[in-house]
Specification:
Blueprint lengths: L6 E2 L2 E2 H27 L3 H9 L7 E2 L2 E2 H8 L2 H9 L14 H7 L3 H9 L14 H8 L2 H9 L14 H7 L3 H14 L1
Antiparallel strand pairs: 1-2, 3-4
Length: 188
């Protein structure tokens, strides 16, 4: 076992531990600060970090700042990040993306903005969930309507075999079920 007085690669072992710890502690602290800033809509902090050179596509675990802002419903932050070049179709390790998060949580204004700025309406995660499926599962009728008006695939199914109507039924969103039934009748 190394003691504090022994040297490793020319550095005292305690010095090496400090050198390894500081960047890790800074990254954890920065991640927590960024998430907190997004949750509290601290536009000034995010702009400051971006002006200091933080990548607009910086990831916390596997999610970009844009994904986190979209999930939190932070429209102003979404517009800032996209305006600075954030990739609107970037995917997390599980394939989640800004469109799926904003659709899942019913953030219609963000869905509209993302679609107007190049987001794919039928983008899928690793389990083939599309924004339409996420919106139907969440019972967000206005998002479902908007996505369908912008060519969302009414016939898309996730890997479990559910389509939008099936998910709306499963989660007891009657208005969405009725709307999708009517849409399918008119769609044929």
């Amino acid at each position: 076992m190394l003691s504090v007085n022994k040297k490793l690669w020319g550095l005292p072992s305690l010095g090496l531990l400090i050198l390894l710890y500081i960047p890790l502690a800074y990254a954890v602290d920065l991640n927590a600060q960024l998430v907190n800033a997004i949750q509290h809509n601290d536009v000034e902090f995010i702009n400051h970090k971006l002006s200091q050179g933080l990548s607009v596509d910086y990831r916390i675990k596997t999610e970009t700042l844009l994904m986190i802002a979209a999930r939190a419903g932070r429209y102003e932050l979404v517009t800032i990040l996209v305006g600075k070049g954030a990739k609107v179709n970037a995917k997390s390790g599980k394939g989640h993306n800004a469109m799926s998060f904003s659709s899942r949580y019913g953030h219609l204004r963000i869905v509209q903005y993302l679609l107007n700025h190049g987001a794919e309406v039928n983008i899928q995660n690793n389990n083939k969930w599309t924004p339409l499926l996420k919106a139907a599962r969440g019972g967000h009728l206005m998002v479902v309507d908007y996505l369908l008006a912008h060519d969302a695939d009414i016939n898309s199914r996730n890997t479990a075999g559910f389509d939008a109507e099936g998910l709306a039924k499963r989660y007891r969103h009657k208005r969405v079920v009725n709307y999708l039934k009517k849409y399918k009748r008119n769609y044929k």
